[in-house]
Amino acid sequence: MLGQQLPDWLSAASAAHCRLPVVFSGSNSRLLPQVQQLLQHYQPDKLCWIGPGAPAGALVPSRQHKHLGTECDWLIINAEQGFPADLVAAVSGSIKAGGLWLLLMPEPEQWIKQPNSDHRHLLPYPLDAAKHQGDFLRFFYHRLQQCSLAWLTPDEVLQAPSFSAAKASEPAPAPYASTEQQAAVAAIHKVALGHRKRPLVLTAHRGRGKSAALGLAAAELAQHDKQILLTAPNESAAAICQQHFAAHTGTKQQALLRFLPIDVLLKQQPHADVVLVDEAAAIPTPLLQQLVQAYPRVVFATTEHGYEGTGRGFQLRFQAYLQQHFTGYKQLQLKQPIRYADGDPLEHLLFHSLLLNLSEQDPVWDGAIDALQLLKLSSGQLLKQPELLQSLFHLLSLAHYQTRVDDLAALLDNSQLEMFALLQDDDLLACALISLEGELPELLSKEILLGKRRVQGHLLAQSLAFHLQQPELTQQPMARIQRIVVHPTLQGQGLGTELLNRICAHYQQAERLIGTSFAVSTQVLRFWLKAGFVPVRLGIKADQASGEHSLLMLQQSDKHHSRLQQLESSFRHQLYDQIPAFYPELSPALLKQLVTPPQQALSQLDYQALILFADQQRPFELVYSQLLLWFNQHVQDVPAADAEFCIALFWQKKGFDDLAKRFGFTGKKQLIGQLRRMVATALTTPGSA
């Protein structure tokens, strides 16, 4: 049946410049022979296959592989044993016009009830992916039924495809694929040839030609002998740009475009007339900030959609930074599809079934706390209220830099995940995700302590047992606040505090130990400290996406008061000793909030040395030890700016050249002069000694 229908359907898709989405349902024993015949007949140049039964020569993508900037002709998803939603979304975006998206689905009534083994990474212990029945497959199936796609069995066609929504794009002169792409290339030229320090940001959903625009612009700039550097999360993500550059330049000009990984580029900082950054949202924000400070002409292109969970973070973090530091920065959005027509049925299918269409309507709150309604939601309730589910997922996407399709799947599949929604009338104002953890068997807790076991989905318990050597606490019921989100237009008005207070009251009544872990910044830390949470562990490695370290905090409770007080004190004191080895680049302002430095009394001789230093009668090197002891005693008393450079100097052991560059001093002499003034002021202030 599929072989009979497919030629006409593929022809119609090609004529409409669209992709063809097909659901082929039935037993694998009947589906796979027909698919194999099709592959022998069509022999697509680039076939991607997800699931079991991949033929020789097919590309089998993995969750670890990044798919932005890549292309394929056919994607076949064998969903007999599972359906990896996040991976399917990522790879589906790479299919070219005239290509095929083929979902091999078991009988629907069987499929929506079966366990989804491909979501095992979303399920916490002790849920067994081979047995656990979640709600995502049921949700996805119902959403598919609302889409325009071909649906057939080995015996009959249930629904024929339709391309009536497809719209032809406005023609553009060669080599451009659209007028928007032409405008993007012109904007890149302005960055390279116009005023300095006016970075450009190109944003688009997938398939809009932004990577090609980078390559075309680079080719035209090479005609003017411009030196161009290209960077991306990995070189494969820059492949489209490189291909378009190579296709439009001669042999002599090929060397004018160089690809360098972002870390190498920042370390070497070679000369460039312009730097192009493809898929910028997948690069840690601090690295992007370093790049735009180091080079006066930079173009950032990024996929703003949530296929790979990075685009929204780029808008939330980096573009806010550009607005603050580069008043002349420009943004250009490419809306016109190039890889396929506007109104492409597969794009609609993905956006609709995976809730990837973000609402542009902002909620309204009148400021009345008493009018707020708190709802505790289960996956079953969300399945029955798709509008609320869509609002919840959209809010998570708006407010967090790593929201992806996996997060939608977790909402529906992870029964240990509890959701809270704060509403006024029907408007969702804020939400929170809570992971129920702990209650681990004693033997398992001991194995975690010894490093013999890691338990999926129990971050709080795992860290308490292994890092903090508190295995007995892992046997307690816990609630880890994964995310607490307030709509961006309503932040700073107390909604986050109100939501957190209500959630904590709920779990305190249930006698759960409440904790959280997040990428820490000074502002976010203040929020959690104000709510009565205490820090107990700081991650050694910075988060790849945010560039920030993860902080584990626990809420004080009567039941665990003395133990949590001890954990906090131990953490704050040990962190001081760990700074030079593990946190030399951490924000000094953050260290000021977290560290309790050792206290050692200064003698009269020590104070005399400090007075002589302040009076320019002793060199810095001779009074270093006294300065360190004095600063440790008064770190919370000195002005914030002075405290930060002193932390970098004394705690992080930074050299004078580094300090001068970082804090705006002309050199060692000016920096030591500031130290002398700071000490002189402090020693003449009553009570400062």
From TrEMBL:
Protein role: Catalyzes the formation of N(4)-acetylcytidine (ac(4)C) at the wobble position of tRNA(Met), by using acetyl-CoA as an acetyl donor and ATP (or GTP).
The question of whether tRNA-binding is a record keyword is answered with yes
Q: Which family does it belong to?
A: Belongs to the TmcA family.
Gene Ontology MF, one: tRNA cytidine N4-acetyltransferase activity
Show the Pfam families listed in the entry: GNAT_acetyltr_2, NAT10_TcmA_helicase, TmcA_N, tRNA_bind_3
**Chief localization class?**
cytoplasm
Q: Organism, per UniProt? A: Alkalimonas amylolytica
This chain belongs to the protein called tRNA(Met) cytidine acetyltransferase TmcA
The protein's location, in the record's own words, is: Cytoplasm
Q: What EC number(s) does its UniProt record assign?
A: 2.3.1.193
Keywords for this protein: Acyltransferase, ATP-binding, Cytoplasm, Nucleotide-binding, RNA-binding, Transferase, tRNA processing, tRNA-binding
Span of domain N-acetyltransferase: 372-558
- What reaction(s) does this enzyme catalyze? cytidine(34) in elongator tRNA(Met) + acetyl-CoA + ATP + H2O = N(4)-acetylcytidine(34) in elongator tRNA(Met) + ADP + phosphate + CoA + H(+)
Q: Give the SUPFAM superfamilies listed for this entry.
A: Acyl-CoA N-acyltransferases (Nat), P-loop containing nucleoside triphosphate hydrolases
The answer to whether UniProt assigns keyword Transcription regulation to this entry is: no
| GO annotation terms (biological process) | rRNA acetylation involved in maturation of SSU-rRNA; tRNA acetylation; tRNA wobble cytosine modification
Q: Give an example GO cellular component term for this record.
A: cytoplasm
- Where ATP binds, per the record, is at 181, 339
